[in-house]
Amino acid sequence: MSTTIEAIEIAIQKLPPSDLAEFRRWFTEFDSSNWDAQIEADAASGKLDVLADEALADYRSGKAREF
């Protein structure tokens, strides 16, 4: 583990509850934004096309259904 990550972990452990809650909120938003950007990039590059085609084929053949 790098010393930077260890320092971040120690700093987080020392946060008072209100600051920890604010950090948690911020990190959740930060992480979600990064995830969304990665999914969008993967979709735009065609990386998800095979999965989408398989899902549609399963649906059309009756192997999958709507909920």
Structure description:
By secondary structure, the chain is mainly alpha-helical. The chain has one domain (16-67). It has helices spanning 3-13, 17-45, 49-60. The longest helix has 29 residues, at 17-45. It is elongated.
Number of helices: 3
Order of helices and strands: HHH
What number of domains? Answer: 1
- Largest sheet geometry: none
- Global mean pLDDT: 94
Radius of gyration (Å): 20 Å
Q: What would you call the quaternary organization?
A: single chain
Give start-end ranges of low-pLDDT stretches: none
Helix content: over 70%
What is the CA-CA span between the terminal residues?
43 Å
**What percentage of amino acids are in beta strands?**
under 5%
Q: Based on CA inertia axes, which overall geometry fits? A: elongated
Structural class: mainly alpha
- What is the total tally of β strands? 0
In short:
The protein has helices spanning 3-13, 17-45, 49-60. The chain has 67 residues and is mainly α.
Give the topology, please:
Blueprint: H1 3-13, H2 17-45, H3 49-60
Which labels suit this protein?
67 residues; mainly alpha; 0% strand
